[in-house]
Amino acid sequence: MKIQVYNSKIETSKKAAQQAAEILKESINRKNKATFIAATGLSQTDFLDDLSQDPKIDWSKTEMFHLDEYVGIPETHPASFRKYLKERFIEKVNPGMVHLINGSSDKPDEEVARLNQLIADKEIDVAFIGIGENGHVAFNDPPADFETKDPFIVVNLDQACKKQQVGEGWFAGLEDVPSKAITMSVSQIMKSNDIICTVPGERKAEAVKKCFEGEISPNCPASILKKHENAFIYLDQDSAQLLKNST
Fold it and tell me: What mean pLDDT value characterizes the chain?
């Protein structure tokens, strides 16, 4: 794992997008294809916008997997991650193949089985992720399951996660946030060849300190990234303010 700190959120997103673009282009040059994982949320908005503007990525040769999605809300809901990705990224770059999570399914276990079959034999070149205020990666809230080998799982969302979603304006109140989500598991994220983790903003400073200067623990899910030699953590001055050591 390598932590990189930049002066502003804008610079952080641009630098992360530059490395992400190079990874995608290298994979396409080497094997005529690149497979990646895309996340959502406020931390990813500028990053995805910057990435979509690179004219040298042949997006027709890419395959995209969706990181996580709420269970029980339609794609038309303002908080839908499918809606977010389509409007802010997919419709801009048109990846060759896209696998979105159907959170509207009334049988989430069947949707998980479908996704697990799709990703089972895939080599993931790079995962684009953030971390939550509670230290989660995807919707793997603490204590996260570090042991399951299933690529996608159904999880219960904790109170801190729900508060973040309300605080960011996705829902009017806690009672409106779904109780469950379909998420890519920690073990599947860690199987990615490279991980680009973009974490700007003061709201993430406490989670950044706990995850990257504390012990590796399911109670700080993103701490597992310290075990990945090609995990690149992009911070700004605000999110890095509590760290004792950073580069």
Answer: 95
User: Does the residue 84 lie in any domain?
Assistant: yes
Q: Determine, yes or no, domain membership for 243.
A: no
Question: Considering only CA atoms, which of 212, 207, 234, 233 is closest in space to residue 223?
Answer: 212
Q: Residues 238, 159, 87, 77: what is their CA dihedral angle, to the nearest 10 degrees?
A: -150
Tally the residues of the chain. 247
Query: How many structural domains does the chain have?
Result: 1
Return the ∠ at Cα 240 (arms to 3 and 48), rounded to 5°.
Answer: 70
In a domain, 195, yes or no: yes
Which residue has tokens 């995209």?
A: 64
CATH of the domain at 142: 3.40.50.1360
**What pTM does this model have?**
0.95
Query: What is the SS3 string spanning 173-219?
Result: CHHHCCCEEEEECHHHHHCCCEEEEEECCHHHHHHHHHHHHCCCECC
Q: How confident is the model at residue 20 (pLDDT cuts 50, 70, 90)?
A: very high
Identify the domain containing residue 45 by its residue range.
2-236
Query: % helix / strand / coil in the chain, to the nearest 5?
Result: 40, 20, 40
pLDDT digits (tens, 9 = 90+) for 177-235: 999 999 999 999 999 999 999 999 999 999 999 999 999 999 999 999 999 999 999 99
Q: Amino acid identity, residue 129? A: I
Paired tokens of 178:
């779904």
Q: Name residues whose C-beta falls within 8 Å of residue 36's C-beta, 6 or more positions apart in sequence.
A: 24, 62, 63, 64, 65, 124, 125, 126, 127, 128
pLDDT in tens, 87-132: 999 999 999 999 999 999 889 999 999 999 999 999 999 999 999 9
Question: Considering the domain boundaries, does residue 244 fall inside one?
Answer: no
Give dist(CA 147, CA 132) in Å, integer: 20
